[in-house]
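Quick one before lunch.
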Amino acid sequence: MLPCGLISRILLNPVFVTAPNIDTIVSLAKRRGFVFPSSEIYGGLGSAWDYGPLGVELANNIKQAWWRWLVYERDDIEGVDSSIILNRLVWKYSGHEATFHDPLVDCRECKSRMRADKLEGYFPEGGGPFDANARLHDGLVKCAECGSTNLTEERYFNMMFRTMLGALADEDDPTALAYLRPETAQGIFINFLNVQTTMRRKLPFGIAQVGKSFRNEVTPGNFILRTREFEQMEMEYFVKPEAEHFKLVDEWVALYLEWFKGLGIDTANLRLHEVPKEELAHYSKRTVDIMYRYFPEREEEGRQWEELMGIAYRTDFDLRSHSSKPTDEEGKRVNPDSTEDLSYFDESTKQRFYPHVIEPAAGVNRTVLAVLMDAYSEKTNDKGETRVILKLSPQLAPIKAAILPLAKNKPEIVGMAKAIKRSLQPVLRAVYDDTGGIGKLYARQDEIGTPFCVTVDHQSLEDEAVTVRDRDTWEQERVKVADLAEHLLKRLKPYPIVAPEVS
Ligand code: GAP
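Model of the glycyl-adenosine-5'-phosphate complex:
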């Protein structure tokens, strides 16, 4: 079902360049202000991370590039920003209260607690229905820590974070119970009619949302890959239920592969995973995951990959479950709490139905990590020193141009450099830096992925020109100050900048 061209392109191109492992990125990210361990001064908080000055720019650039790609450049997608805390009933009827749980097991030997469905031997080879506890009992499932098969039976643990609404709420008061959303998607479904009617939309159309989600993950870890608080970029694409839309999943997979490529990710580091039936989420009839090679250091090729995003065919499951009208075999309302029917009336056929949904759901943090890993490279200069160069796509680079004075003790040069920085700021993100010798300043900018360094020297005072140095080629060019903004914008043009552009 996956497009043949796509698969062969991925399989025939096995050469990849990336960071050697996630730890290299963890150390770069901390050293250079991308990502810090959260609450570090109090000993940290398991798997929580804070974005620093450069990380917040990178993450914002990814989110803005995504929003622009879907909401601005297409004519069939609207945006929303719904609440994180929704009425508890949303999670009852979405199925999350009953089914959004992970199976847990404990190892009796090394005392680790783990997600059972991530362990070797949990699923039978060749798929099909199975009894997990029987497999655990028969010693077919292995502890990820010590390899023992002496594991407890599995038990279920709901991953939604609970909270109580209202200052006087009693801990056990079920009417005050609320959850932090575990996906942004439900905020879209419950607003389907609001968006469709206010924006006068006809099918097909989509609704996009970017924002925080929360899951009390059993085994978070691997830096920002799996955390309990994370950000999602989700889009629900509503279509007529005229057929089962398995092929639309492939179409969105192909679009997203192109999008990731446009962000600078090498397609050799991406691959597709058709989620087997028994592993599908409760709402999905088909899901294809786009995987990224987050673990290139692992010898076993199959263990190098982890999900970057998923594209699911959710059918009419959510709109129907949140609607007041559907009834069961005995004629009783399936959802007696909803006050709305989230169906759609098709003027052309005079038919009313619940639209079907294709959902591309991507993680911001996982995209940040994939982009950083893919951009990582090392280069040796003529003195034999190895430097890190972050070959970020210029549209994602936190800083587009660094303005560097060659002599920081010359007020005229410093003044000119600062004035150039200020003049560029309205068109692109620029910084001024005089905290080191020029070689060091270049190296620092290379390491954070700044595409251009602009050097102001003694001659600049005479000829009103500066040197523009390219991050990737280290080639230098002399450019008149009056032409500098246009020159940089022209070179950045293939990568639309997400900062405000001035014509
Ligand atoms: N609405 C569908 C949905 O939420 P999902 O596959 O559970 O689907 C979508 O999540 C994406 O969100 C994942 O592919 C991943 O990029 C990101 N994500 C999910 N859980 C995460 C976590 N604990 N930490 C970081 N990112 C996560």
